[in-house]
Amino acid sequence: MGQMEGPSFLDVMAINLHYNCQARCPRRLPCQNGGFTDSRNCNRCKCPSGFGGQYCESIPPSFSNGCGGELIAYEAIRRFDITIRQIGQQRTKQCIYHLRAPRGKRVLVNLVRVQGRCVEGCWEDGVEFKMTTDPRLVGYRFCCQPRYQQRILSRSNMVPFIVTSRTNGITLTFEYTFGKRKTRRICRYFLIN
């Protein structure tokens, strides 16, 4: 149960179901992206990480106006770079993005550089890519430079990813593109510049 930083979204959801917390609300909301009616505020949904808004329909705000938002994957390989530093008082800083490919395509991410605090679970300074079709699940997390090249392929055309800094800071570089949904050999053709 849980992860290093506390209970996971699915843990909270299971507890809410077990104790029938949603019965406190007069109606269930039309929550999207795996969210559920928040029994502490019946007018909002409780959203999995990477989603926000009243019904979990949008990208939640990031710690700064200079980061977060939507990135579009094209056939041509693109590069993404970000550094989040901890200066002065340490606090949690997150930049939340949705990486989107055209319908019927899958997103391919090639990690080039990851420099964060190397801890089990990568929950302090790192990046999380949600590559499955279920946004409630914790995604692939990276906080250290991998020994081997890391290429990850999504199951759908949209990948929420969250860059987090809690202690030292994080520097992240990756390349991204898209491929056909049924392509099995897409990783073989993904070249590094």
Automatic annotation (TrEMBL):
One GO biological process term: proteolysis
PANTHER family per UniProt: DISCOIDIN, CUB, EGF, LAMININ , AND ZINC METALLOPROTEASE DOMAIN CONTAINING, ZINC METALLOPROTEINASE NAS-29
Residue span(s) of domain CUB: 67-193
UniProt entry tagged with the keyword Protease: yes
Listed InterPro entries: CUB_dom, EGF, Peptidase_M12A, Sperma_CUB_dom_sf
Hydrolase recorded as keyword: yes
An example Gene Ontology molecular-function term: metalloendopeptidase activity
Keywords from the named record: Disulfide bond, EGF-like domain, Hydrolase, Metal-binding, Metalloprotease, Protease, Zinc
Protein name: CUB domain-containing protein
Domain Peptidase M12A: 1-22
